[in-house]
Amino acid sequence: MSNSGEIWVIGEQRRGRLEEVSLELLSKGTALSQRMGVTLSSVLLGDEVEEIARELVFHGAEKVYLLEDARLRYYQSEAYARLLSEVIKEHEPQIILIGATEIGMELAPKVAAKLRTGLTAHCIDLYVGEVDDTPHLIHVVPGWGGNLVMHIICPQRRPQVVTVKPGVLPKAVRDENKKGKIIRVKPDVRDEDFRWIETVEVVEEPPQGKSLESADVVVCGGWGMNALGDFSRVQELADILGGVVAGTRPAMDKGWVEEAWMIGQSGKTVSPGLFVSLGASGAMHYTTGFMGSKVVLAVDHNPQAPIFHVADVGIVGDLREVLPCLIAELKKDRMPRKF
Questions:
Q1: Would you call 333 helix, strand, or coil by DSSP?
Q2: How far apart are CA 262 and CA 24, in angstroms?
Q3: Each residue of 73-102: pLDDT tens digit?
Q4: Does residue 210 contact residue 244 with C-beta atoms inside 8 Å?
Q5: β-bridge mates for residue 149, sequence order
Q6: CA distance 246 to 162
Q7: Any idea of the CA torsion for 94, 141, 107, 257, to the nearest 10 degrees?
Q8: Measured on CA atoms in the order 13, 249, 119, 191, is the torsion positive or negative?
Q9: Residue spans of beta strands (DSSP E) within 185-316
Q10: Cα Rg for the chain, rounded, in angstroms?
Q11: Are both 7-194 and 217-334 of the same fold?
């Protein structure tokens, strides 16, 4: 691992709003930069987004390379990829961190291809470790259908391009006393960047109910809920706890939850204060979706289920018996008491 070359976080903004995954990447970037003794920087593209650049500084970026142009107001696939690759070639950072969002999952491979370097996608952690007595950045990803966790290195090509799933990492702490440089880079935006495709408008659907990612309590049902016939008890428990309902892929396939509320490697990643898992055995592709939770409560009929290896509190039993009792006790705890 070289001690030269900065670590870069690609700041993602939509409609003038900084995406939280950028703050999560700054948190990990800060830890890595301190471990490696290098500068942590960020890159931001957009139009009239200097305020967002300052937020990147307040959250840990020592430098922000700011590329502003009216035509960059919305994400533009070809323009963003070309401009980013050019500024990367000029400044030669050694690590590029990108959020594994809809935008990041398209942008990262384009940038990596232009730079002729490696890409590790959908990481759940990053750390500096020794391999053959040499320090390397270790990329941690779930693999083989989620049944294994793989530790990957990129020993030859630079920069290393990495995408990290939103919700996996804690957010960087905001501190307005932090100082950093905002370096303006005049982007060479060309008509040819919009020859094949151009984003002219972004229409966002308002979220329905509480946000899954920001919820402090998440109640997630799996295939085991089939014994109860539906998800009504999951919703009831979530309502009592003031949380939101989520599901595993089998639950989504069954039609109990929409894809936007699916937890796991191919779904959402959450880090609530309490995560309740009901009737899910605990395959790795599922558990990677809530590894950052403070407390995990799991209910499953199989005492050997992998879910109990990650749960803080485990209940072995039939959901048809356990869940009604759990709901009844929680309701009882909320009833006014006479003294």
A1: helix
A2: 21
A3: 999 999 999 999 999 999 999 999 999 998
A4: yes
A5: 142
A6: 27
A7: -150
A8: negative
A9: 217-221, 244-247, 274-278, 295-300, 313-316
A10: 22
A11: yes
Tell me how far apart the alpha carbons of residues 327 and 46 are, in angstroms, rounded to a whole number: 49
Cα 93 from Cα 61, distance rounded (Å): 14
Domain 7-194 carries which CATH code?
Answer: 3.40.50.620
d(CA 113, CA 7): 19
Taking only the tens place, the pLDDT of each residue in 61-78 is 999 999 999 999 999 999
Distance CA 3, CA 216 (A): 39
Residue 180, token pair as written in the block? 């950093």
Question: Tell me, what amino acid is at 106?
Answer: E
Query: What CATH number does the domain located at 217-334 have?
Result: 3.40.50.1220
166 is written with which tokens?
């939103």
Instruction: Delimit the domains of the chain by residue range.
Output: 7-194, 217-334
Residue-wise DSSP of 57-122? HHTT-SEEEEEE-GGGSS--HHHHHHHHHHHHHHH--SEEEEE-SHHHHHHHHHHHHHHT--EEEE
Query: Taking the model in full, what pTM does it have?
Result: 0.79
Q: How many CB atoms lie within 10 A of CB 291?
A: 18
Element (H, E) at 148: strand 148-152
Label each residue of 42-69 as H, E or C. Answer: EEEEECCCHHHHHHHHHCCCCEEEEEEC
**Residues across the chain:** 339
